[in-house]
Amino acid sequence: MDVDLKATLCGGQCFSWKEKDGVYTAVMDGRLVSIRNTDDIRREGLSRYFDLDYPYGEARAYLASLSSVMKQAVSYAPGLHILNQDEWCATISFILSQNNNIKRITSLYDTLCRTYGTSVGDGSYAFPTQEQLSHATEAELRELHFGYRSVYLVSAAEEWKPIPRDLPTEEARKELLRRKGIGPKVADCILLFGLHRMDTFPMDTWMKKVMSRFFPGKDGSLFAPYEGLAQQYLFQAMREGGLSC
DNA sequence: CACCAGGCCGTGC
DNA sequence: GCACGGCATGGT
Question: CB burial class (10 A; 0-12, 13-18, 19+) of residue A205?
Fold first, then answer.
């Protein structure tokens, strides 16, 4: 099955892609990339980023077998994939996300690129590296409308280090929770979208609504070993009104 | 005016 | 351990 680009790129996993007339564009590894379909993904060498080798067919079948609501959520956007994003970029992105909406997160993400990132031409900018963002000050960020998240960004750039790839999810989570501005929800988003830990289930305000309404008393472990994918299916369906009793 | 958005932190109990 | 208010900003 082809990747659903809209569900995958514009559903709150990442904030770097722009869509125009069915063409999705972003800066990847220092160059501007445009794609329209799964063939373009392969042609541009983005198979890993789009997670093409993960057994989505198997995961979909299993999740859909669990409950009618989950089946409905899966059928809403079956081509949804979980991206393999850069850990640094995902960390900053989800620090921006707290108590915020996707539109404004995207806008703030854009401001970071234009202010601190490297130009790649055509008015586009790469996401700033840790070194580039470490030049930002709290006062400067506040002027750029980052609000109380400003201090978290400064701290993240100062104290950044990658999580060892072989560290078990629960220990990685503890490490993330020590960092300023990273709580349970942001940590889980970094684990899922930046480290591809499918055994995480980020609980934001939308997911709290989903769980209390459709799976009262349960948690993400109900969907093991595909918690993360299940979460994203439910998140999308709930936000766009695709779930009914 | 209120309340909400991919929440977290510090305080008080 | 848990509940609560404060926090920046922009949209409805």
Answer: exposed
- CB atoms under 10 Å from CB of A18, counted, come to 14
**What's the fold here for domain A5-83+200-239?**
TATA-Binding Protein (3.30.310)
Query: Nearest nt to A107, CA vs C1'?
Result: C10
Question: Does residue A185 carry a catalytic annotation?
Answer: yes
Q: Residues 127-146 of chain A: which lie with beta carbon within 7 Å of strand C?
A: 142, 145-146
pLDDT tens digit sequence for A37-87:
999 999 999 999 999 999 999 999 999 999 999 999 999 999 999 999 999
pLDDT score for A244: 76
Taking the CA of residue A116 and the C1' sugar atom of nucleotide B5, their distance in angstroms comes to: 26
The model carries a pTM of 0.98
CATH superfamily placement of domain A87-195: Hypothetical protein; domain 2 (1.10.340.30)
In the complex, which nucleotide's C1' lies nearest to the CA atom of residue A15?
A: B6
Start-end of H helices in chain A: 5-9, 38-43, 56-66, 68-76, 87-96, 102-116, 130-133, 138-143, 150-159, 169-177, 184-189, 205-214, 227-239
The model's pLDDT over A110-167, given as tens digits with 9 standing for 90+, comes to 999 999 999 999 999 999 999 999 999 999 999 999 999 999 999 999 999 999 999 9
